Amino acid sequence: MNKSKVGLLYILPWLIGFVFLTAYPFLNALVTSFTDYNLIGSAHFVGIDNYISLFTKKDFIKTINNTFVYTLMTVPLQLAFSLIVAFILNFELKGIRFYRTAYYIPSILGGNVAVAVLWRFMFQQNGVVNFILGRFGIAPIGWFSRPAGAMTIIILLKIWQFGSSMLIFLAALKNVPKELYEAADVDGAKKFRQFFTITIPLITPTIFFNLVMQLNNAFQEFNGPYLVTGNGPLNATYMTSMFIYDNAFKYYRMGYASAASWVLFSIIVVITLVLFYTQDKWVFYSDEG
Amino acid sequence: MKRQLAGILAAAMAASLMAGCSTTNEVPEASTGAGNAQQASAGDGKGVQLRFSWWGNDDRHQATQQAIENFNNSNGAGITVTGEPSGFDNLQETFATRYVGGTNAEVMTLNYDWLATFGSKGDGFLDLNTVKDTFDFTQYDENFLKTGMMNGVQEAIPYGQNTLGFYLNKSAFERYGITELPKTFEDYEKDAAIVTEKDPDNYLVVSPTIRFAATYYLQQKTGKAEFNDDYSMNWTAEDYQDAVEWYKDMADKHVFCSREDYVENVGNDPVSVAQNEKFLNAGYLGVMEWTGGVASNEATLKEKGDTLVIADLPTIDDAKFKGTMAKPSLLLAIDKNCKNPTEAAQFLQYILNDPEGVKIMGTKRGMVASKAAQKTLEEDGQITGIVKEAYDFTDKADVINEVAFFEAADFNNAYQQNYEQFEYGQISAEDCGKAIYEANASALEALKAQNQ
Question: Is the N end or the C end of chain B the one with fewer CB atoms within 10 Å?
Fold first, then answer.
């Protein structure tokens, strides 16, 4: 057996998984998006009716709007927060390993049911958040029953899960040559200036990577809003991924849901391509000189 | 050699991946020692494995798991049932996904509207007439049994009747000095004023959905059910407008829980409040719900030292109908592709009619429709307290029976979304009534096209 055949055999399990669990559903969703398939009966071709219906109904537009607000709030904040924490954890402090682990834990917990229950307890009317606010003379806030409050909760939940990007930043920071800082010290550059003129430019490939990944994640966010706020109130936390789920499994409009998923996919692709196009202007790869 | 070994390993991994996708009702030979499982399952049940799915609170889970364990130990035919319990969240989505994916349990619990959605043509679940020698249908009222029938096929067994009622925390009312529980909506308004004078955030009655109260109101106002079996509507946009205005007025007076308070303290979806903190702390002094949930509500309040009672049904002014609504509480069905239908029916017979199984299952699913089960539970002293009250209440109450598709998600959503917008001041009552009417009409049209 030649080497290429053995290699193929090694990746066969993954390949089978990819074909049947990713590629097939992916293409099947595209075909389904042009039908009225409803889980129960047979599918009929309806052309682009599902797509037209999506853009003429305000509930879908509202979810797109919510998803953009959520993404625009969480991605920059999470990037900034994870970079700052990584920068601090890059110093050789006592017990630094414990802190690195501790800060990563929220990312492992993610948006699971236990976390959802915890966050509901924290933000409920007589919860710890309102208790702390009360100490500063602020009246209890109905976090879940106010559109802005509910959106704030799920944004905070997302930012709280900054561990993964923090670890990637930490690895990038460790790769910045120390000599550059020494030279800057000799030239009299302050730490603040060193951060923006040495650190940031040298880790732009990592910032770019984290940005693309976070954008992709944020656009597809489901667990946090689904578990913590439902889609309420007034659909203020109704994300496009939840709209897809509801239409597919609650209302059995599989064709309509497939069309929505392809619209979301297209948005993500366009934004990712724009980012890739702009990287020439702000991302510096050391091997490009 | 290494290359060959790698090839074998890769092939084995791929095969195991595929094996994970297959479904079977039989236990592998090696694990049972029962010989050919297929052969065994055909007659004596040996080596047959079945799954049973249901939802509920902890009390229901414990009773059902105990009944399953007893059945497994005592059936004498080697049938092993595995329980698949779940909470109240996302029941429909979970069921739909499993049903369409073919991974549903062999014996399943259904909501009434799922029967209409997945079995409207009579071919969604096993025709139970094929197991009538195993399951004793004579224990059921013939007419009530028909609620499990679609297109002339007996696809499911209705467990019992669910009647919508008002259940009040008597102890909490007494703490406010109210010794006589409200009987009319005027009484509710007066009592709400007393309660909110001391605790302004409290409400007298919480309900999983505004639709319960709105339907209750409009049935009394019009004397008709919301929908007919032929997918036609009985209520107008003006009726819906009237209902949402009435509910909002009641919510403003803290008789019914406002949508804002529900979202803040319970959540966005309709769920049982039996384990809700505000309900347990008497922030809600009562609940409007199906009788099927009353035992759970009573049990959790009892742990806090409070007593739940079934209240008289209040009537609106100029009511054309002085009652409430009813439907089968839940139904039990067997998978149409089940390879061991006789054994599945044996299990159903055990939990629904057999004295031993019935005693263990108890009244955790509300009232039972089986005459044998009712007799067993009465003799066992289990139909007492709130459960006895629920039986008496159901017997006495005038009810309008809802159609099978009444609880389809589209209808509940139409009420919830539009009422929420109205309560939050985003739309007028007129627009809200119109929006509910149009959403319901559209959903009915889709259902009709799908099911006919």
Answer: N
